[in-house]
Each structure stands twice: as structure tokens, then as C-alpha cells.
From TrEMBL:
<feature type="compositionally biased region" description="Low complexity">
    <location>
        <begin position="578"/>
        <end position="593"/>
    </location>
</feature>
<feature type="transmembrane region" description="Helical">
    <location>
        <begin position="727"/>
        <end position="751"/>
    </location>
</feature>
<feature type="region of interest" description="Disordered">
    <location>
        <begin position="1"/>
        <end position="41"/>
    </location>
</feature>
<feature type="compositionally biased region" description="Basic residues">
    <location>
        <begin position="595"/>
        <end position="607"/>
    </location>
</feature>
<feature type="domain" description="Carrier">
    <location>
        <begin position="505"/>
        <end position="580"/>
    </location>
</feature>
<feature type="region of interest" description="Disordered">
    <location>
        <begin position="575"/>
        <end position="619"/>
    </location>
</feature>
<dbReference type="InterPro" id="IPR036736">
    <property type="entry name" value="ACP-like_sf"/>
</dbReference>
<keyword id="KW-0472">Membrane</keyword>
<feature type="transmembrane region" description="Helical">
    <location>
        <begin position="758"/>
        <end position="777"/>
    </location>
</feature>
<dbReference type="Pfam" id="PF00550">
    <property type="entry name" value="PP-binding"/>
</dbReference>
<feature type="transmembrane region" description="Helical">
    <location>
        <begin position="783"/>
        <end position="803"/>
    </location>
</feature>
<keyword id="KW-0812">Transmembrane</keyword>
<dbReference type="InterPro" id="IPR042099">
    <property type="entry name" value="ANL_N_sf"/>
</dbReference>
<dbReference type="InterPro" id="IPR045851">
    <property type="entry name" value="AMP-bd_C_sf"/>
</dbReference>
<dbReference type="InterPro" id="IPR009081">
    <property type="entry name" value="PP-bd_ACP"/>
</dbReference>
<feature type="compositionally biased region" description="Pro residues">
    <location>
        <begin position="19"/>
        <end position="41"/>
    </location>
</feature>
<dbReference type="InterPro" id="IPR000873">
    <property type="entry name" value="AMP-dep_synth/lig_dom"/>
</dbReference>
Amino acid sequence: MIDPFGPLQAPPTVSTPSAAPPASVPFPEPPVRPHGAPPARPYGVPFAQELAAYGDRVALITPDGELSYRRLAQRVAATAERLGPVRRLVLLAGGNRADALVVHLAALSAGHPVLLVPGDNDRAIRALTAAYDPDVVARPDDHGTWTLDERRHGSSHTLHPDLALLLSTSGSAGSPKLVRLSHENVQANSESIATYLGISDTDRAATTLPMHYCYGLSVVHSHLLRGAGLILTDRSVSEPAFWAEFRTARGTSLAGVPYTFDLLDRVGFERMRLPHLRRVTQAGGRLAPERVARYAELGRRSGWEMFVMYGQTEATARMAYLPPHLATERPEAVGVPIPGGSFRLHPVDDQGDPEIGELVYSGPNVMLGYAESPADLSLGRTVRELHTGDLARRAPDGLYEIVGRRGRFVKIVGLRIEPQRVEALLERHGVTAYCTGDGDALALAVLRNKAADGDRLRRLVADECGIPARAIRVTVLAELPRLAAGKPDYEAVRRLTRPAPEGVEAAAGLARDLCRLYAEILDRADATEDSSFVSLGGDSLSYVEMSLRLEEALGGLPTDWHTKPIRELRALAPPVTEPAGAETGEAPAAGAAKRPARWNGRPRTRTRGPASPRSARSWRTRRTLETGVALRAVGIVLIVASHIPVFSLQGGAHVLIGVAGFNFARFHLTGAERRARLRHLWRGIARVAVPSVAWITGAVVLTGFYDPANALLLNSLLDQGTERHEWHYWFVEALVYFLVVLAVLMAVPLLDRLERRYAFGVPLALLAVGLIGRYDLPDLAPARFHLGPTVVFWLFALGWAAARATTTRQRSLLTAVLLLALPGLFNDQPLRTTLVVAGLTLLIWVPTLPSLGPLNRIAGILASSSLYIYLTHFQVYPHVPDDFPVLAFFASLAVGIGYAAVATRVVRRL
């Protein structure tokens, strides 16, 4: 197995206080005790202390490899040893990564209370650090290296012996109000969940929810308790790469909140083949009964079980579950108490139905109580049973049903309104909405669809509730606001429904601008905040232009930006304006107007923000450049320069074949359903073939240098060329052949399913097939050996596999194939071989390269025009005198860029 704890994966670094300034030192591994277990302590959560009992079973499956329980226990023991024998408060920036999990388990096993906060929320980390003054802060530094910042050797707090875990309640990330959980709470809830779900050591669960969220954490705990495997990932279920990881790891369990099921619907989950899936669990909010029934029926047909569950952070995670065999018959119920727990109904005043009361839960997983300051960490149990705030009834069959929320009643113009009832009313009219009170108004955020007419809904709610329509604020959104855990964000509903202050550009303004940009570049008038570059049919030809325009707008992009919806990209833009002089450090003159940055002719706000040490100037100029884009730009420069020649450095076209395969996987093999995939693929083929045939036909007619087979892209297939110029367009022919054949193959449902299930295995198999054509088979070999489609297809398949490679082992395999198969392809041209090896190795291993803004713009123009420069340069440089090779070079680039601008617009219109 591969040890995923390489370098931070080397153990964390630790900064320790002393008389001298603190310094980060390597975190050594102490001698491992028997079986890697931590030393015996009076405190701790049992399952975290007994990890080594599962020996060499796989505990964690990460992008870097697998980790056994024995190795995990050793890492946990080493970290527990570093935390020391004196109990200290550990603030942990949670994340679905191995290093965070090791620190968490080490603290639980050694009895150090853990304050778990969202690792991607700097505001929450700062707020809770200031509020609780933790003794140790565990989080990655600015370079991604995991560190333990030991702020003191002992503890400044009085910590109750039972205290194990501190969690924010739903919606309160960064709030000083925390839930205090004991060692017994954590252990008991984990055992109960593992029991009713039937988790065994053969299970493998994906971390589809964040670790800092109690539901996501309970998935981790309950599976480690039973010696099961965890597929550690921070990918969304909307990403094809998630499903590739899940299938490869033979995943058995998926957990989701209602929003997760929205995403599953979008990616065609019901059509996926997941032969190892055993259960799907749902909690974190109400899932509509008809959807519960639909997923339960899907599970029955597909061989897995649907568990609907109910819980709160105050009960560690879960309080009730609906047995799977009842999910289709009673999808509206939350079910029965979990093993070891019980419910009762507490009478509520003003309830007309005597059978309805507040649901009160008792069990060993009920919290110790709340904490609102460090002084509360010394408290023991202050809560014996949990008043959930939910109104419920117990049906005759013994199942509990939630009918409302006691704490969500609001008063509008003196009338008592229950927002949950309003949501149910709108749901019956085909509208999904979030409803909450905001002062004297009822705030409604409505999901956009055909029935979502704001005025009509306002009148409907007004008539039903008996309040004036003027007291109802409605906003229609492409996606309803949710918290990181997927629950409704009611504070955002209040904020979004309020009128924007005059003179302040709302965030929606930037979203509209981004939608216009997507519509302009991709010629898709239907672009919304839910759209992504891939979902709108973006391809490698429009990718570069889009990435550059977005960088100008947002200041930087993640490598997977093309799969993210506009809504998420909008969040990358710093939100507030800077006063004039901020960039230079000068104070603005009195009364000076704020100066917004400008993008695309429209004002846009930005700021450095308190959490960022970078200046506005560095924010603008520090850039990275995607390796694929860089290779396209450098490749076309080398091709043109070598043909003139300005210099001779060949191999660029063969690198671009690999890049084409890489982009094929990224932009065409998306999570869309099969027909949408095929439409996108055929459009992509047309965008390559139409301008190519048009230009080459002109060259055939006007120059007489080419056979008509060239115009039809058939020269390689018919093998008619004997002159060098007749093979000029071998690259275009090969690319079109590959795309057409793959489009035909992907039209076969079985092959489409195989590709989705074996995202890395399919291109690897095609790479093996391509290697047959790579070697000298007389019946297949073309006249010019290294230019024939059958000879270079393996490079295309290699690029495709590189885009799907997610582990070090997979990338190493591809590199080995490249190093073994490429030598000899170009006969006695070692420099050409070296260049192709270097370029494709970068593609396999390095996603981005450091760059600068101006360099990005140049590379972007060259990369987006690379196909057109390749097409046109053969007819440009021969007309420039041989004494002026540099002029011929720049003229070739200029003509190709010009043809790109014309051809792109024409093809879009067609």
C-alpha cells in the first residue's frame, strides 16, 4: 500500500512556546507501542483507542493510496504522544483529508477535547480561536503543510473529565455557542448508528459531507468503529471524478442531505451502475416524501437500501431512522428511535390537535449541554433530555411524524405564521421555497421554475395566511441558499429578499455579468447561476478564452473551475470596494468616492479582505497557468518556428495530440446523460472539422499543392501522399478520426456505462490497444510512420488517461508507459523524443505552472488559436522571403489568430 502521509503527509510540524521565539520543527514519530495503540489514559473515546485491533484492513482510501488500520493507529499514537499527557483544548480545522482525521482521532483517543470548526472558513476559525483561546490549533498553513500550533504546554482551561467534542449547531459556524459532547455521547451514537445500519468491516463509505458537520462526522465514527473503510474525498457527487473514485474503491455507502439528492438527480444517479452499493442514507433536513419513495424504490430495484434519518447536533448526530422496508409505504415519517433512545411528546399550548406535541428525546447520546464561553468547559451534564423544538405526532403504527417547528413561528401584522406550513403550501403548488420571518415581513426564497411567479405566489401566501401581500417579500433564485452542510440558510433568505441599499452593487450583479460572459463565449442564452462551463457545452477551443476572461473578473481560478457552477465562482470575487489610493497605500482624500475595479466595461467591486496579507497589486498580478494551456501555446510556437524554420525543435504536434486526449476527457466525457454527451461531442467535432475543411479546400484550389483527399481529411486514410506537403494536415485528420470513432462508440449504451464506471480503466485499455498501432505492423503502418492516426492514437489515449488519473500509482504507470513506448518513434531524433516526454510528463504530473498576468494573456491567445494557426501557417510563411524568418513567424501567428476570430464566430452562428 502507498503511505498517504508523505510530506504532511509527513507528520505535522509543531510550533511550541518557549523563551525564544516559537519555531516550527518536524513532528517526530515516537517509538510505537504494541499494535500502535496510544498509551492508556483515564479519558478517551474507546473506538479511537482500539483502531489497531483491525490490523491490516484498509482504513482510509485517499487520492494518494490506501492506509491500513495498523498504520493509522501508529499515526494516531504519534500525534497523541505529541499532544502530551496533560489534557488541552484542541481547535481542529476539519476537512475530509487524512491529516485532519489523524489529529481528530489522536485527540479523542488521548482525551483532549476537540473544538471542530470548518477548515475552509477562516472567519469561523478566527472567531472561535478568539472566543475560546484553544491550547493547540491544528490546521494547514499557507503552503498546505499541516501544523500543530502549541500555544501553551499545559491548559489555561478547566476541562470537565467527560468533555470530548465541541461542535457548532447548524447555521452557527463561528458563533461562540457550541454543543458539548462527552466521550460516552460519541461512542454510544456511533455504536447505535453502526447497529441499525448494519455496518460491517467490509463496508466502504465515501465522505460526501464535511467532517465538521455532525452528520458527516458520524459517518466517519460509525465506520471506524466497525473496522470499515473510508473513501476520503472532498469532491462533490456532481463531479465525474467522485464516481470514478467511488467505483474504484468499491464504495458501499453514500450519505446525503436534501441538496445532495438534488445533485444526484442532475447527474443521472438512477442510471448509474454501482454494483457494490449497499445503502444510501439521508438526514440533515426534510426530503419530500415522494422523493423518499422514489429513491427507496430505486434502491429496491438496484439492490441497495434507503435509510431516512432524523437528528440534531445536540444528540451527537442521530435520534431516529425509518426502516428501509417502510420507506415506500411511509415516506413522510421520520421513523422510530435509534437503539438505546426514546421519544415522548411534550404538550404544547395553542395546539388544536391533542396528539401533537414537542418531540423530546432521551438517550446516551444527548449532549452534556451548551457552551457559550471558556468557563462553560468545566461544566458537567446540564441537560438530561433534548427538547428538539419540532412538533410531532406518533402514528398508530408507532412511527413518528414531524408536522412543524415550534421555534419557527413568526408574527406578521399580529398574526402567528408557521414558515414550515408556508413551505408545504408552496410545495403542493409545485414550488420549492424557503420561508422565514424578517421583522414585520415574511421572507420567501423560491426556486426558479415555470410555477415560480413572484406576484402569484405572494397573493397565494397572503390569501392562505390572512396577511397583506405587502408584508411578503419574494425573490426567485436559480438555486436556494444552503449552509455548507446542505441545510437551508435562512439568514441568507432574509438578506436576499431585502432591497439592496442604494448605490451598492449587489452580488447578483456580478452573477448576471458572469452569466452574460458565459452566454457570449459559449453562445448559450440559457446560462444561469447553476450552469457550469461543462454543462453549457464548453470545449477546449472556448476553454482558454473563458478562463482568461474569468481570471480578469475574479482574480484567480481553481483548477476545476470548468465543472463549478457560476454561483460558486461568484464567491471567489472579493466582495467590497476599495477606496481610491488603497492600491498604493495612500489615504483617500476626504469625501473621495470609492473606486470600483472595472471588468468588461462594467464596474466590479473587490478588496483584499482582512484575512489576506496580499496587496491588491499582487492579487492582480500573481497568476498560475494551466499546464494544458501552456503546452498548447508552446506547442504551436514550436511547430510554426520549426517549419519556417526560425529554429528546429520538433515534437510539438505529438505533445498536442496528448493534450487533445486530456481535453477530450475533461470537456466531453462529463457527468451529463448519454444523449447530451453525444450532442456536445458532435458539436465539438464540427468546430474542428468545418473550419479545417474550409481552409484546406481553399488551399487545394488555390495552390495545387494538395490532393483533393486533403480537403476531405482523407489523406492519412487513403495513404495517397508522397510529398511532404501532402502530410501537412495529418494532425487535424488524426484528431477528427479519433473524435468520430469515439463518438460512435460512446453512442452504444453499454460502452457509455463502462466509461462512467471505469473512468481510468477504459482509457488505459485504449492505450494498450493504441500501442499495437504504435509498432511496425506492415498492414497498418502509414508511409510516414510517426504521422499516421493508428500510430499516434496511443498518445491521445495517454492524455485521456492522464485526465482521469487520481493517484500517484496511476500517474506513475502512465509515465512508465511513456518512457518505454516513445523511444524509437522518431528514429534518430533524441531531442524530439525528449521534448515529447517532457511535455507529456508535465501534463501527467503538474496541473498548473507559475505565471504572470501578461504571460497568461499571450499564452491564452496562442492556445485558443492553436488549431487555426496550425491550419493557416503552411500558406503564410512560404510567401515571406527566406531572409526574414522572424517576420514569417509572426505573420503566420497573426493570420492564424485572425482566422480563429472569424471561424469561431461563423461556426457559432452555424
